[in-house]
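The records we work with from here on pair a chain with its fold. A complete example follows; check for yourself that the lines match position by position.
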Amino acid sequence: MLRLLRTNRPLQRIVALGGVVLAALCGGTAAILDRLHDETVAEAALGLRTLNASLAEQAARTLEGIILTVDGVAEQIPPENRRSPEAFNRLRADRQVYEILKAKASGLPQMEALSLIAADGSLINFTRQFPAPALDLSQRDYFRALKDEDPGRVYVSRPAKSLATGEWTLYIARRVNGPDGGLSGLVVGAIRLSYFEELYRSLHVTPGSGFSLWWRDGMLLARFPAVPDKIGTIAASPEVAERIAHRESGTLVSSRSLDGKDRILSFQVLRNYPLVVGVSRTRAEVLARWQSQAMVIAAAGLVSAMALALMLWAMARQFLAYEAANRALGERRQAVQARDEAEEHVRQLQKMEALGQLTGGVAHDFNNLLQAVRSALHLLEAGGEVRRTETRQALQVASQAVDRGATLTQHLLAFARRQRLAPAPVDLGAQVAGMATLLERTLGGAIRIRIDRDAAVPPALVDPHQFDIALLNLAINARDAMPDGGTLTIAVTGLSVEGKAADGKAADGKTADEGISPALAPGGYVAVTVRDSGAGMPPDVLARACEPFFTTKPVGQGSGLGLSMVHGLTAQSGGGMRLESHPGLGTAVTLYLPHSPADPKDHPAPGTPAAAVSAAFASANAEPPPLPSGGTRILLVEDDVLVRMANAAVLAEAGMTVTEAATGEEALALLEADDGIGILVTDFAMPGMTGADLARLARHHRRDLPVLIVTGYAEKAELQDLATEPGIRILSKPIPPPALIGHIMAAL
């Protein structure tokens, strides 16, 4: 046989295959046994935890029954016996009190005795004997704890041996106060710790089980199976004592139990009490079924090695196929989740963009209305027929309302990303530090301001004035979220986004678990985080926090434009805003502003075209001194009838000759037909031909024609080229009539 095995190659292959299969069988059997072992231990641990939770609840109810009885007795002591320690001592000879105490104690099987103790520590009434024996209890820990102060609740003592029975007993004491708050006496309920041993003995449990009750420091109070010589001692092993002292519950394997056997122990701390209930089983009993299963599996493996090997091989293939299917399903689920998140992000961006377009359109129309109202008010104020003081005051109020409306439209345009900005390199750390005094005065003394700034952060490209307004808005929001005071933290750090656009991160580099984060383009950013310790926002409020006019403040205390304006500023500046908030944990708003270009040529210098654009936009509403206007002819182009009529009346009242046009095409025809027109004043946003197109065509026809373009937006892309040309000015609606007249005269 051996010679054949040495020479027969197919046989060698068969033997080799058999050896491989046998090795696989042994390995598979060992793995199955190991898994069954772990499952058996886990199942036993789960059963122990379940039983332990039930016993812990029962033990807590046992103590609470005694506590309720002790509280009831303390409350039922007559007022005349509460007046002084001497009056309380008179209960010593009151047999009726003894009967009452005895009746209450008999209603609770767990209560060993119910006692009244005088202010000097002597026993004055006792359910086990009347009259009460002369016992001095002044050295008991519950008497020392309650003698000098009243905690307002019962006191659970450390276990001690009863002076009456000699058994280990747990005492629950309640202080009885006199009218002046002084000690009149104590009501004490006692429970024999052997009660728990008897309770555990009555349970129908599996063999090898053990039940124990511990003090939190490892002192054994009761156990079944009983170990009388260990009661009242620190009997827990150091490992068990460490666990029960620092954890509320847990499961562990103890190799040094009280009976010397390896046990799986589950412990649970009683709620509100320094007691621990432990339930255990010996490992031998837990693993008995596993051992029998192991013998059956091993025997079956030895008898049918080949069949079992093939079966295991098929099972392995099936398992691998199952794992591959699960992995593919998980990858598909992740892909679907990523797609849903991307679609939700796109929907949010589309929603904010739609809101921005709607808001910008509303602001534009509102500016037109404000322009008409402002011009009409100017005509009334300039007329001689307004003489009454009340009428002039009414006109002043109306003018103030127009100014407030103009401020509101600026906030709306900030959200719509159409406000005029004058970006410049700004050291945001220094900018924030410079505002500290203003913030302190604004927020009040109840709020502590903390500023963390990284000195290595490069300058950011942002409008410094608008940044100050945004920071002040965020600080005021934080103040309103902390009505009882708190801490406002402003951190200035750097952030670098590499590769494709990524979600913004907090100053610590961690992404938000719950919040609104921007998608930042690759590049360097300065992150300014304003964090408060206020109430925070729930998810539904957080989702709408950046919407214009959305506010949770009472009517008259907030416009709902603060966060939307900040969001618009960061977006228009080329960055973004991240909003994170959790109820009870406060709110953090992070502004991401792009780094200023390192090349000086990227900064507009005075006298350059880029600087001229910034100057044109920044100073558009300046009011130069008016010049003589005699004989001035103006072509006024405005598609809004109310604005055109009002502005034409204002200019005519100033002595100018006004020719009106409703469209750019009509204005071009008038310019070609009349060379006497001295200046073109046109709106920007008009149907068909915009004011910018009209200006280009008009200047092509008459190169030296002065042009004023009046706009409610900040269309820098369309107007920045025109703003650099001499003789062209960009004005912002609503413009005061005197300023409009002054700009016309200055342009001429």
Summary: The longest helix spans residues 305-382. Residues 142 and 157 are 6 Å apart (CA to CA). The radius of gyration is 44 Å.
